[in-house]
Automatic annotation (TrEMBL):
Protein name: Dihydroorotate dehydrogenase
Classification lineage: Bacteria, Bacillati, Bacillota, Bacilli, Lactobacillales
Role of this protein: Catalyzes the conversion of dihydroorotate to orotate.
Membrane-traversing stretches: none
Alphabetically ordered keywords of this record: Cytoplasm, Flavoprotein, FMN, Oxidoreductase, Pyrimidine biosynthesis
Co-factor(s): FMN
Main location: cytoplasm
Residues annotated as binding FMN: 20, 44-45, 125, 162, 190, 219, 247-248, 269-270
Length: 310
């Protein structure tokens, strides 16, 4: 029995990796990830220039997950691109997460990556909910289609999209119809559920400073939504567009559920932040135990095979 998998023809020890933004801001954090049991890693979403991000407190762990309004703090695209270029011969598969603060900056950043010798995967983050005044791009279907049309007029490297959660079947249908028109390597479902609110009842106060306490939710809160998005897009997208599942992964069973819904790879955010990189060994062991108990010998035995009630 094996939890090995392949992505873009590259064999990975397991389907697990970090979620962008968690444990991937600095070289030290990314090196620790690269040396961990994680099958792959993704960098913090980069903008062209360094960003300090939103004022603290901006990330809080709460009983059922986390709330954050980081505001895309990052060292700038060159920092992460240089990190990946320097290591792309040693690391099996790298994911470089990118966005821009404007349409033109997005195009500029993707042109920068296209012009580089980077051989890894680019994750285009269409779903950050925490930059004040900036809407989540992928909730604007027309803008998304315009951006993808321009990007694919020049971008030839493997490209995936980090999507926000959708909550309406019509939106799954509309978004999938747009995505099926482009040669995407994958879509990553989901980013945090944007603009939630967590209250400290003793202080009768919000818990994060930016945006009056509104922030993206992660963790247990979002697993049912994450699973639904993985399943909905797996059912609707061309099989050539893979699905990465993100959201609410804390145990091997959560990993199993994401794969059952159609995920090829599974990312860990909140629980990684809380437990550290040791979580990857635990998740692999727990997934293997579930596969053993069910008599599965590989991920393909159950990937995308969620049953409905007839
Ligand atoms: O895409 C993002 N999702 C989040 O939940 N937070 C970060 C951020 O705020 O930088 N970005």
């Amino acid at each position: 029995m094996t939890v090995e998998t392949s992505f873009l023809g590259i064999t990975l020890a397991n389907p697990l990796m970090n979620a962008s933004g968690v444990h991937c801001m600095t070289v030290a954090e990314m090196d620790e990830l690269a040396q961990s049991a994680a099958g792959a890693f993704v960098t913090k979403t980069a903008t062209r220039d360094y960003r300090a991000g939103n004022p603290q407190p901006r990330y809080v762990d709460v009983p059922l997950g986390s709330i954050n309004s980081m505001g895309l703090p990052n060292e700038g695209l060159a920092y992460y691109l240089d990190y990946c270029l320097a290591r792309q011969n040693q690391q099996a598969l790298q994911f470089l997460s990118v966005v821009g603060l404007s349409y033109d900056e997005i195009v500029e950043n993707l042109r920068t990556i296209e012009a580089s010798d980077y051989q890894g995967v680019t994750e285009f983050n269409l779903s950050c909910p925490n930059v004040p005044g900036k809407p989540q791009i992928a909730y604007d279907f027309e803008l998304t289609e315009r951006l993808l049309t321009e990007v694919f007029s020049f971008f030839t490297k493997p490209l995936g999209l980090k999507l926000p959660p959708y909550f309406d079947i019509a939106h799954f249908d509309q978004m999938a119809a747009i995505l099926n028109r482009f040669p995407l390597t994958y879509v990553n479902c989901v980013n945090s559920i944007g603009n939630g609110l967590y209250i400290d009842v003793d202080k009768e106060q919000v818990v994060i400073k930016p945006k009056g306490g509104f922030g993206g939710l992660g963790g247990d809160y979002i697993k049912p939504t994450a699973l639904a998005n993985v399943r909905a897009f797996h059912q609707r997208l061309n099989p050539s567009i893979k699905i990465i599942g993100t959201g609410g992964v804390r145990t091997g069973q959560d990993v199993f559920e994401h794969i059952l819904c159609g995920a090829s790879l599974v990312q860990v955010g909140t629980a990684l932040h809380q437990e550290g990189v040791g979580i990857f060994e635990r998740l692999v062991a727990e997934l293997e135990a579930i596969m053993e108990a069910k008599g599965y010998t590989c991920l393909e035995d159950f990937q995308g095979k969620l049953r409905e009630i007839n």
